[in-house]
Amino acid sequence: MLIVTKPGISQETFEALLEEIKQQGYTPHVSEGESHTLIGAIGAPPTPELMEHFRALPGVDQVIRISKPHKLASWEVHPEPTVLDFPTGRTGNGHFMVAAGPCGVESREQILAAARYVKQHGAQMLRGGAFKPRTSPYAFQGLGVEGLKLLAEARAETGLPVVTEVTSPDLVDLVAEYADVLQIGARNAQNFALLKAAGGSGKPVLLKRGMSMTLDEFLMAAEYVLSEGNPQVVLVERGIRTFEKATRFTLDVSAVPVLKSQTHLPVWIDPSHAAGTREYVTPLALAGIAAGADGIIVETHPNPGEAKSDAAQQLPEAAFADLMQAVRRLLPAVDKALAVPA
Questions:
Q1: Where are the alpha helices (DSSP H) in the chain?
Q2: Structural domains in the chain?
Q3: Most buried of 108, 209, 228, 305 (most Cβ within 10 A)?
Q4: Considering the entire predicted model, what is its pTM?
């Protein structure tokens, strides 16, 4: 349920209200509005009698039943768009971010070269996989801890925050030591133990939609992270599995406006995994921006032909530079702005 406080409620009354919410077996999540404070009381569906009990408490203006199953992700609990801040930019509510880098960290020379040019061309975050969940057990699985250290070195040189994937609950603490943002990939989007562990890390979480996930399931996956007290979640549409074979996956552009109508969380597009082929990456990225996306995450490699994973979809530097120019031209048309890294 959603508890709306009266304007001017005293701190003492507010604290007593929070304590009563806890005593009744609910977890309070506070959201500050312009004139009212909203408290999402998360737990079992409340009885009419319990709702009346809260309505009668001092300082309470309204008590509203939350209709959405994804309560913390809903506009009801959080009526203002969530904006995530990083040293190099912001995402959400008109602020647009670009995360870019290779699919996997392969060497010191490779990740430093990529970090330098993605920053030069305007990206605000460096992506790169240190742990790589792959379809084949014989494929390149990443450099592990060494990859994390190389990402940290690239961050130290360029100032770009780092996003990298975490693949199991037992790796969350390790990855969180090195990364600024924890990515949960499509294959782990319903790994609930991992979602909870990532939520408990306190780090922002970039959550990709599973390849066969409905949007309701996607939002409920985000709810696992949010329910751990971590409000820093970015939803990423990266293509879903359909009958079409012309692309690796089918980018569900309609997911962007649908998600933005249902949640306050920033929504990004991953055109690289949707396309599977580099020539389609820029058109899909621009389609996502036109639909209202708050950011994109793009794969680019200094020498794509030598990449150890996803070589066909990674952009060379020149193509990435062209993509960034196209992004800059389009953003003003959709009332968004790209911050330029210092």
A1: 11-23, 48-55, 108-120, 145-158, 172-178, 192-200, 215-226, 255-262, 271-275, 281-291, 317-330
A2: 2-64 (3.30.70.1140), 84-338 (3.20.20.70)
A3: 209
A4: 0.90
